[in-house]
Every structure is written in structure tokens, then in C-alpha cells.
């Protein structure tokens, strides 16, 4: 009496893939779950994590930098100790806007709410230094900038990290309070992970661009 062959392998011993309907259906929930998790984590969750905010004053860098010929340092200057001031003061703005210059509603609102009241504008920053990172613009403003930045002038040098042509919407992380555009470690690594190209005796502090953790994390 011949025994029944319950295996999926044919009697000619030729090995072929064994996939029953029940086995394939058993894998379906895993595949579907992976796809759902991928879509949620990649597309949906980031939208839930960030909230969009508007600047207290309608302002475009394109109008002021390109239209008026201002430099980045006109509003974002270094302090006397070499550290970066970052936020423009009302004195910076009033050097041009001590009186109404045009007829736009945005300028009129700015003038009434801040110039006439003598209040500083509470600007929100797209680029914020994380609490666990020490970053000095004075240390990164090398003696000869164009040696590393392909013959860029000061305005173009700033735009390497800070887009000037367009003003991005401000998106704040609901958990950390930081902007979505806050400096990321991979941006620092573009130089610090390969410091050899900075080691030039003509560049001030070039040898200090190392990749040790304590260089930036104080």
C-alpha cells in the first residue's frame, strides 16, 4: 500500500517554492502593517508633529537683500566679543523705517505696532542653536572665506546655510519647540567629518575643525 505524499515537493524530487494560500495570506497582515507604518511615519506623523507659525511682521529677505542691496550683516551682526547677535534690533529697522516709506498694509502695521510704540519685534528664528550644541559664528567666519566657499561674497556665504531667495514657512516642533530648519548634525559633518580640506596655514583656526564630540557638544 502506497503512502500519501503530504509534502509540497513533487515526487521527482525537483525542489520548487512551496507557497500555499494559507501561508501567503498569513504574511499579508505583516506586509500591510509595514506599509501602513511606513506611510504614517514618513508622510503623516511629520505633519502632526509640527505646527506652522507666522512672523509677527510680514517680512521678505528677497525684498530687503536683493531689492534694497542690503548685506546680511546689515541686520545680523557680530557683537564686540565676536559672538553672533543674530536677531535684528529695532534700531536696525528704524535706520530705514523711522517713518512710513510706502503704502503697504504690512509696513503700516509694523509702524503702528512697533515703531510708534517703541517695541522690539519678537522675531521667530528658522535656525536655532540646540541647547546641547555650542556653535560660534566667530569661529566659523574664517579669515579667507572664499578659499572654502568657491569665490562667494558675504551675501552668498550666508546663503550657503540660510536661503535668501525665498522665505520658508516657520514650522515649530511641538515636542522640542525648535524650528524644522534648526541646524542638523549632518550639516556640521560636511566639514567636520573631513577636516583635511580645511587644514591650510592661511586659514585662521583651520586645524581646529576636528570631528571630536566635545568640539561642538559642551
Task: Tell me briefly what this model is.
By secondary structure, the chain is mainly alpha-helical. The protein has helices spanning 21-49, 61-67, 90-97, 105-115, 137-140, 154-159, 185-192; strands spanning 50-53, 170-173. Strands 1-2 form a two-stranded antiparallel ribbon.
Topology:
Elements: H1 21-49, E1 50-53, H2 61-67, H3 90-97, H4 105-115, H5 137-140, H6 154-159, E2 170-173, H7 185-192
Antiparallel strand pairs: 1-2
Structure description:
It is a single chain. Helices cover 33% and strands 4% of the residues. It is mostly helical and 218 residues long. The protein has a domain of 92 residues. Strands 1-2 form a two-stranded antiparallel ribbon. The longest helix has 29 residues. The chain is extended. About 7% of the residues have low confidence.
* Largest β-sheet summary: 2 strands, antiparallel
The coarse overall form would be extended
Estimated radius of gyration? 28 Å
- Physical arrangement of strands within the biggest beta sheet: 1-2
The helix count comes to 7
N-C termini distance? 81 Å
Summing up helix and strand content along with how strands pair, one would put the structural category as mainly alpha
Percent range for helical residues?
Answer: 25-40%
User: Order of SSEs, N→C?
Assistant: HEHHHHHEH
| Low-confidence sequence ranges | 143-152, 202-207
Number of strand segments? 2
Rounded mean pLDDT is 71
What amount of the residues lies in strands?
A: under 5%
